[in-house]
Amino acid sequence: MDDAQPSGPTEIARINARLDRTNELLQRMLAEVAKTPSTHAIFVDAGYVYAAAGLLVTGTEDRRSFDLDAEGIIEAFIDKARTIFADSRLLRVYWYDGARRRTHTTEQQSIAELPDVKVRLGNLNANNQQKGVDSLIRTDLESLARHRAISDAALVGGDEDLVSAVEAAQGYGARVHLWGIEAGEGRNQAEPLLWEVDSQRTFELDFCQPYVTRRPVTTYENEGTPRPSRESVRFIGAQIAATWLGERGRDSLADLLPGHPYLPGSVDQELLVEAERLLQRSLRGHADLRRALRDGFWQHLQAQY
């Protein structure tokens, strides 16, 4: 008789009992898995949100021209996710932004203190452009997907560089859902990113409007105010340059010097706004004074190199 065959009714009964026990354990395991909720996280490229929401509501991407209620819009994202992922629990919201030397601003500190929110900071270069944010998103998204910490990721952004982050997360079985903000014209999200994700959703003006407020325009009364001299304006330019270097460091200086005598638009605008604040006088329409302002700014920077 083959040793692999049951030797009799007793042996068959024993085998059936073991099978029943195995099936019972499997059923318990499946029941526990069924009771375990899936988990989602929200990944927000703050630079994209500021630019897209600001442009949609106020007509400008310049952060200095409007205020964004970050706490309010984060809560709105959480509520939307709660509706979409009804049987899932929130892991947390990741808020990616840029800062000089990766040092939190007062606003970023307040966001970091919100419950269920983690702030990740990339750097800002001399042109106020974010650096390193996309790589932070990829690292978090890939790590959470690899460790099965999330089943779904809501990604609020639009940069084509995020495609690799989406592919990495999907490779570990996570589903990635792209959320965007309505563009007045065309698109504000890269097509390769739209092609790669599992689903898309666009938030329109009505969604964004409660969280974006245009700042009042500061005007300066010129009547009765003596016109500043070119030398005083040049001194103001040097003073702003000294503050600028103290805040951003010499590394940012290297980004500007190759462009001399021209300043990037964002830096030039920042210089003008700060000079008008210090002088309490508008320099709009005074090309000679604005040239003096830039000369003073450049003179100080070049003296430090």
DSSP strand (E) fraction? Answer: 15-25%
Amount of helix: 40-55%
How big is the Rg? 28 Å
Q: Supply the number of helical segments.
A: 12
Spatial shape: elongated
Strand order of the largest sheet: 5-4-3-1-6-7-8
What does this structure look like?
With 305 residues, this protein is of the alpha/beta class. It is 50% helix and 17% strand. The protein is built from 12 helices and 9 strands. The strands form 2 sheets. It has a 7-stranded mixed sheet, with helices on both faces. Strands 2-9 form a two-stranded antiparallel sheet. The relative contact order is 0.11.
Can you give keywords for this protein?
17% strand, seven-stranded mixed sheet, alpha/beta, elongated, single chain, two-stranded antiparallel ribbon, 305 residues
Describe the SSE topology.
Blueprint: H1 9-35, E1 38-45, H2 46-58, E2 66-68, H3 70-84, E3 88-99, H4 106-112, E4 117-124, E5 130-131, H5 133-146, E6 152-156, H6 163-171, E7 175-181, H7 191-196, E8 199-203, H8 205-208, E9 212-214, H9 230-248, H10 250-256, H11 265-279, H12 287-304
Parallel strand pairs: 1-3, 1-6, 3-4, 6-7, 7-8
Antiparallel strand pairs: 2-9, 4-5
